[in-house]
Structure formats: C-alpha cells, structure tokens
Amino acid sequence: MTRENIGAMDAAKVLNVIGLTKSYGGLTAVDDVSFEVFEGEILALVGDNGAGKSTLVKALAGAQPPDGGRIEVNGELRQLNSPRDASEAGIGCLHQGLGLVDTLNVPENVFLGRELLTRLLLVIPQLDHRQMRERTIELLAGFGISLPRLNDPVIRLSGGQRQTVAISRLLLQDVRLVVMDEPMAALGVEEGRRVLDLVRTMRDRGISVIIISHNLEHVFQLADRIAIMKNGRLIGVVNAAATTRDEVVRLITFGAATQSEAHIEI
Fold first, then answer.
1. CA-CA distance, 150 to 105, in Å (whole number)?
2. Does an H or E element contain 73, and which?
3. Residue 12: strand, helix, or coil
4. For residue 23, what are the β-bridge partners?
5. How big is the CA angle at 44 (ends 16 and 193), to the nearest 5 degrees?
6. Radius of gyration over alpha carbons of the chain, in Å?
7. How deeply is 86 buried, as exposed, middle or buried, from its count of CB atoms within 10 A (0-12, 13-18, 19+)?
8. What is the Cα–Cα distance from 186 to 172, expressed in whole angstroms?
9. What is the pLDDT of residues 86-141, one digit of tens each?
10. What is the pTM of this model?
11. Which strands sit side by side in the sheet containing 27-38, from one edge to the other?
12. Which domains does the chain have, with CATH numbers?
C-alpha cells in the first residue's frame, strides 16, 4: 500500500484491534483502543511519554495480554497471551533492548531459539553452523542487507548493524506484521537511514509495520498513516500525506482535532 492509494483501503486487512483495554491497578494504560493495519502499510504510533504506546505494542506482542477487547489477525480472532502466540499469528516485535546475545555471532543470533541441527556420525546432534550461515546470507541478500562480519560476536557490531540482526531474526519467521519500538533511537544519521531503508523494503515486500517513534521527521519519511495516542486513548489516525507536522504535534499536545483536521479518522 502506498500513500497514493492509502485512502482507498483496498489492501487486505492484516490487523484489526477492537476496543483494546489494559489496566494496572487503578491506572488504565490503554483505554478502548481500536484501529486497523493493512497489508504493506507502515503505521506510525506517536504520543507523549505515558500515552500508552508501549503498553499497546506489548499487548500485540503477547508480552502483556490485554484485559479486554479483540485482536484479529488476517480476519481470525487471536488470543495473544504469550510471545509465542504472537509469533504463531505472524506478528514479530522488535523491542528497544533487541534481545541479542552479545557473545554469539550473526547467524547464531538470527537463528536464536530456532537453531538448525545436524548429526555427527549420524548420531550426535550439533549446531549446523554452515547451513545457518548460508541461510542468513540468503535472508540478508533478499532484503538488500550487507553485514561484512557475520562470524564476529554481535557485541563488536555497530548499533545499526545490531538493529539489522534483530530485524533479520524476525524476518526469518513467516511474519505478516512487524512491531518496532523506537528502532532509530541512539543511531547516527547514516545508520538511521539504513534502518529506514530496511523498513521501506519490508513494506515493499508486503510486510506491514507498526513503528513507535518520537522523531516526527522519521515518521513523515516512513509512515502511510499516523496514529496519535494520549492518556491511553487513540485520539485519531491521519493520512501522513494529507497532514502536517504542526497538526500532529497539536493532537499529541492537546488531544483534540481542529476543524481543519476533518480528514482525521476518529
């Protein structure tokens, strides 16, 4: 889906969230949130700290199951009570911590938890390093990714390269939707650009992306639509090509649309 046809909503609906709610004691972190994500769409999720963005994506990732509401993936109702449930539904989540093991190399991190095995003398199981390396190279090449030092422990890689390894691990699965929490945080300009390019490549391959970001410059470079949250509620969803930075900032700050924002879906 491109910005030119986003208004038509003619792509398949990958995710449908209906009335999602999550509370901690007396605090409602996510309050009756409903939205949709379409195939090959980048949806940016923005809002101040405490708006409920991270809690929402943790619910989608199965890390913090919601208290109420429905989550439908490809038209099928899903109970996302664990990260495994989310993975089986085709949802991959990239948290800020990345979840890499610093002492392992790139293929070992890409296949972490899904290691390929061979048998020594047809009896003794051991890691199939050759096949994992070959499949890692194939996966990276398919998304236009270049990592020159595959055998180095990932602790020696730059921040952008580590992001790429973490994203590649998600792409190894049969993902339809990737959720990313501040993927460009703490990256330099060039490395940030490469991550942006990788996100665009995922969209071009039909993978949908939900991206949390405080950087509105990145948001307007990437997003087809922008969802704005405030105090746990979804204020509105705007077409990125039909809005402005000032309008989005106003929604983030004041939590209400003006008359000039009639294109906003509330």
1. 6
2. strand 68-73
3. coil
4. 28
5. 135
6. 19
7. buried
8. 25
9. 888 889 888 766 678 888 888 888 888 777 788 776 667 888 888 888 888 887 77
10. 0.80
11. 27-38, 13-24, 68-73, 76-77
12. 3-265 (3.40.50.300)
